[in-house]
Write a structure and sequence with these properties.
- The chain is an alpha/beta fold.
- It has two domains: 206 residues, TIM Barrel; 108 residues, 2,3-Dihydroxybiphenyl 1,2-Dioxygenase, domain 1.
- It is built from twelve helices and 16 strands.
- It has an eight-stranded parallel sheet with strand order 7-6-5-4-3-2-1-8, sandwiched between helices. Strands 10-11-12-9-13-16-15-14 form an eight-stranded mixed sheet.
- The longest helix is centred in the middle third of the chain and has 16 residues.
Amino acid sequence: MEKILNKLSLAGIVPVIAIDDAGDAEPLAQALIDGGLPCAEITFRTAAAKEAMTRISKKFPSMLMGAGTVLTVDQVNTAVDCGAAFIVSPGLNPKVAEYCVSKGIPVTPGVATPSDIERAIELGLTTVKFFPAEANGGLPFLKAISAPYKQMKFIPTGGIDESNLLSYLKFPPIRACGGSWMVKSEMIANKQFDEIKKLTERAVQLMLGFELKHVGMNTGSPGQSMDAARELSMLLSLPIKEGNSSNVVGTQFEVMKKQYLGTNGHLAVGTNFIHRAIAHLESRGYSVKHETAVEKNNDLIAVYLDKEIAGFAIHLLQK
């Protein structure tokens, strides 16, 4: 259970999809994967859901696919038979939740009140769907009702789009957000898969928020480092802060006192969510140098990629 829920956390965004024509399933899944989001919740709102899930599961077995709008135990079994890795329901149906727990099937039932959350805790659940999120008071209401339940995580869904995605994701009890703004039914029906890919890419970029924070420059000695730092300082009227291993000029430059990673130096790239950034980059074939990881308060705040670009190592930083 927890393994799948952790994968949802790393995905960050769960596209919630209603497919009317099962023939659209494969190109839709391809658009999401190409857009950087190999994850989807296929809802049982249409008659094509069963075949759509089967097609996606067969062609894209590595895609994290779940079934949504699951109302009965029979639908749970159908979804699992079709390849669904997790179950989502709009409300907290005890029969569905208990059955999934007994079978070890990850399930996130919908909740909207403290009483719902307490019933979910009694059922042994650690993650629930806050639904419909915006109609139920949005993030302020979720913060209020979740405060007593430190062990519970949430996947808010309903009314979430580019305008409020980051504010939700930055609230620690939230594992991921469900949304359909990049996979609207009319876009699927009109075969606008290129547009779906673009919107998916934009959603992932918004979530990760990659931003160049500083340029690291390698030198051969502390003296060379200070000489370079002083020249940059004079050129750009920036202050120098001397450190043990480097001299920092303003916030834009770090001049190393010896040769470090990267032939020429490093590019420090900030991200909103470093764990999600790593998962996203690993899905595209990149890897990290785990021995370079830096933690603060038992959480990762920095790590280098195992790759150089034009002689520069890439250094991920948690913003």
